[in-house]
Amino acid sequence: MSSYDYDILVIGAGHAGTEAAMAAARIGVRVALLTTNLDTVGQMSCNPAIGGVAKGQIVREIDALGGIMGQAIDKTGLQFRMLNMRKGPAMHSPRAQADKQAYQIEIKRLVENQENLALRQEMVDGILIEDVDGSKSVTGVSVRGGAEYRAPCVVLTTGTFLQAIMHTGEAQTPGGRAGEGTSGGISAALTELGFTLERFKTGTPPRINARTIDYSQLEEQPGDDVPRPFSYLNEALEVNQLSCWIAYTNEVVHELIRENLHRAPMYSGQIESSGPRYCPSVEDKIVRFADKDQHQLFLEPEGYDTLEVYVNGLSTSLPRDVQDKMFAQIPGLENAEIMRYGYAVEYDFCPPDQLQPSLETKTVAGLYFAGQINGTTGYEEAGAQGLMAGANAALSVKGMEPLILGREEAYIGVLIDDLVTCGVDEPYRMFTSRAEYRLMLRQDNADRRLTGRAHEIGLVDQMRFDRLVAKEQEIEQGTKLIEATRHDGVPLEKFLRRPETNWDDVVGIIPELGDLSAAAAEQIFFDIKYAGYIDRQNVEIERQQRLAEKRIPTDFDFTSISNLRNEAREKFAKVQPVNIAQASRISGITPADIALVLAHLSGK
Amino acid sequence: MVYVNDDTICAIASAPGTAARGIIRLSGPESLSRLAAICRPFELPSQSCVVPIEIALEENRSIQADAYIWPSTRSYTKQPSVEIHMNGSRPLLDDVLGRLCERDARIAQPGEFTMRAFLAGRIDLPQAEAVLGVIDADNDKQLKRALSQLAGGLSSTLNVLRDELIQLLAHLEAGLDFVEEDIEFISSSELQNRLGGIARQLTEMLGQMQSRTTQTEAYQIVLPGLPNAGKSSLMNALAGDDIAIVSEEAGTTRDYIKKAVNICGFPCELVDTAGVETIPDDGFLSVVRNSAQSRTAKQTSGAHLVLTCRDLSSTDSGLSTLDMSDTPCIPSISVGTKSDLVSIQSEKIAGIDVITSSVTDEGTEALIALIAERLEEYSHQGELLFSTSSRCRDSLAQAVESIEQAISVAQSNLGEELVAADLRLALDQLGQIIGVVYTDDILDQIFGQFCIGK
């Protein structure tokens, strides 16, 4: 039998897998990235877009940590918009439509060009484990065709492919994505290793042919006049932007859906698993919000060289004939030809409270999970986890401490802490409201928050770090100038905080500030605008950090605390918090429970 | 939080009501400076000792007290500590505690002094565990009791206001997170109006809570029930010869009658709630009952102790039809009255704690002893109760401040994300009173109210 040796194996080459493999390779270990199909590396299975509110911030963080998502979308985006520009800077969120195929090819190109990284087409059918006195560790995977890959760390990023079933009306097809199969073997292997698996569902809308759309009846949604890049490596973008278009459903369409509800797998009982509330199928919208007489549909082009158009907002699992009839009733889409029908997909995931904050599983040393297998949705959430899992696997191979980002440091920190501390009861998507320190976690300052830390562990190259250092110097100079100036009878900072003051006014007062780069000026401006609130949040952050310093040993026995409530004991045993800060965030845990744990920790 | 131990905490360490002297305890690095900040100037000692101090109050008044001061680590908690021994009047203690809080001392959480003593090695693990382990249960009861005592029927209002605040925050958050949805969330002027309404009601509630703690130190003993259950006679029996009737609250509607009495050293107010004397018994008993019931609920919600009277000579004891299930956390004594009218073979009757007769005076002494016993339990829990109520008011005041800040931020158009930040602080404070967190509530609200679906 053939056998190959690596430091790290990444299984699956979607958004999580590619970031995982790239991160590990950047840190300098030898990585093999195994995918069932080399032609679907980095594929956008659902909507052809990257970013959005909270998600855009995550992409900026991935980029600040050296990841590839930002660079790939900058190169292959066909429309760029900064959302929420009417709100404050913490809410500004980049979003871009991608040329779907170009994006995928760009990701593949970046992966192929990465040193230390071997991209291979293989079908993994088993996980190799070593069990010494009940303590399990991973040693590799077996693949179809009688070969083995050996490595001390394996990152599993299998997406929706575990035991996947697609539903279109009454029709069911095994498979995680239209036209592709499922990976059943891994589910069985995970169950055998003692992991709990649960099921989620998600949906995707039909795609239609642009040639058959009457755009004269639709509302145009153009890109920004000045497209802003996702990657900190890019200062400006040259792009010939395409527009998206808005259509609306109506009562006739709603009536048609109502009449056919019994044929929708969710309502017929064919699907029982839970799906996301924030991305409901159109049948769900019509049942739950019966009083709305129309729903918005966004028509998003899938690329420059294709006429395929993604109908965002019309996710459905209704049968083909109903999908056809729906379009006939929508103004502008009366003659639309469906190119791919919408479907719902059900899949296995591993409830993420089985993971440590490094994304390594609690029960099998060296085995990491990232992406949709952890019950999340979204390319951005997947990519972020992949990057962290890949980096941590590499750090572990090198015998270094894992990289754990705090909730005050990054949306990625919020994401992973939520997953491992609270688990999930619907597919997890990031919202800014999940981040208690969102005023600091802005899309404009991800590099300042993360690139330094990433550089320390070799996750980003010197060039990125030098750019950051130069930017910080500029920021410092500008801030000093402002601090030394008074205007209108008040310190300039105070003047700047007034809502009507903009940066140009300040440059009018201190002309030297006009020499600063736009990026540095923006940092100074935003930091001053939010200063009072950030100071207040810093007090709370400091308190949380002191709690995080109180570590709980991995072998700490919660059952030894005789006065602990049963509920608390069970929750602690399940989550196995690594420090007091995390322990206090577990739902249902009270200050008195924490006090007891603390008493025991210091009693030892 | 209990698990931060390097700031300065304070609490009342003596039971309310009975003691002539009251104690306020401080522990933490700034204990001495906090004390100095509320006193007329005096020299801070460098060694453990007792010093006479003068605490400055409103309008140039002051009170004398003794301060036991441990400036170094030789205290119970091994932190600089202070005990203020002063007049035991509850409003005064409360006032002094408030002054310490204004100077940035924090009101201690339940068990916090114990925790510090344990961390200092003053008590061992089993002792600490025993105290900390029962705090949750106690704290929960105390919270409910403090709320019903301080806020009376207002605790339900608090829940309503908190829900409304969550709803407003959900609107704001939805507007921030779902910018591309085709939905009108909330206008700034409507937001400001509704926030203003919430702030006004919370302020009103704060005023009421303050007046309730400072108004009376007496324990409220409520006698619910329909007329002719023997309540008036029972009240007179409890007032007795040696217990003087101090006051009788008269009102034009005579909704209820209050008598101030002293039972075994506990200052009490007896409250006859039903107040149906003015409604003629013309056969519309159901009307009478409904009216009695709503009044009863209102009165009992603020009670320390409920005496339920049952006329032993009547088969239809009026009380059995009054629903008392809304007041589960208030201790009660079930009193059988008019025992002289029936021949009772057994001493015990199911569900009756004491059998009395105002004619023969049977059972009066036993009842008084029982009341004293129940009130004794209260005074043991006094420290917790008192610090809980202080915390409630503190939280409420901070919540009001945050909402007012949110309104001003909204007015000057500084950004909805900042309004949201202030509302989150307000909700944190209200959540501390009620004991709940809200993050999931907000997402639930958003997905329940709006069709989010891009």
Give a verbal description of the structure.
The complex is a heterodimer of chains A (604) and B (454). Chain A is 37% helix and 19% strand. In chain A, the strands form six sheets. A six-stranded antiparallel sheet of chain A has the order 16-17-18-19-15-20, with no helix packed on it. In chain A, strands 1, 8, 9, 10 and 22 form a five-stranded mixed sheet that branches. In chain A, strand 24 and strand 25 form a beta hairpin. In chain A, helix 13 packs across helix 16. In chain A, 53% of the residues are buried. Chain B has twelve helices and twelve strands. In chain B, helix 4 crosses helix 10. Classes of the chains: A alpha+beta (604), B alpha/beta (454). Chains A and B meet through helix 8, helix 16 and helix 19 of A and helix 3, helix 4, helix 5, helix 11 and helix 12 of B.
List the helices and strands and how they pair.
The complex is a heterodimer of chains A (604) and B (454).
Chain A: E1 2-5, E2 8-11, H1 15-27, E3 31-35, E4 49-51, H2 55-64, H3 69-76, E5 77-83, E6 93-98, H4 100-113, E7 117-121, E8 124-132, E9 135-143, E10 147-150, E11 153-156, E12 165-168, E13 171-174, H5 184-192, E14 198-204, E15 207-209, E16 219-221, E17 244-248, H6 251-259, H7 265-268, H8 282-288, E18 296-301, E19 308-312, H9 320-328, E20 338-340, E21 343-349, E22 364-365, E23 367-369, H10 379-397, H11 411-422, H12 446-456, H13 462-483, E24 486-487, E25 490-491, H14 492-497, H15 503-509, H16 518-549, H17 566-575, H18 580-585, H19 591-603
Parallel strand pairs in A: 1-10, 2-3, 2-11, 3-7, 9-22, 11-23
Antiparallel strand pairs in A: 4-6, 5-6, 8-9, 9-10, 12-13, 12-21, 14-21, 15-19, 15-20, 16-17, 17-18, 18-19, 24-25
Chain B: E1 9-12, E2 21-27, H1 31-38, E3 49-56, E4 62-70, E5 81-87, H2 90-102, E6 106-107, H3 112-119, H4 125-151, H5 154-177, H6 188-215, E7 219-223, H7 231-239, E8 257-263, E9 266-272, H8 285-301, E10 305-311, E11 332-337, E12 354-355, H9 364-380, H10 382-411, H11 416-434, H12 439-449
Parallel strand pairs in B: 1-6, 7-9, 7-10, 10-11, 11-12
Antiparallel strand pairs in B: 1-2, 2-5, 3-4, 4-5, 8-9
Helix pairs in contact in B: 3-4, 4-10, 5-6, 5-11, 5-12, 6-10, 10-11
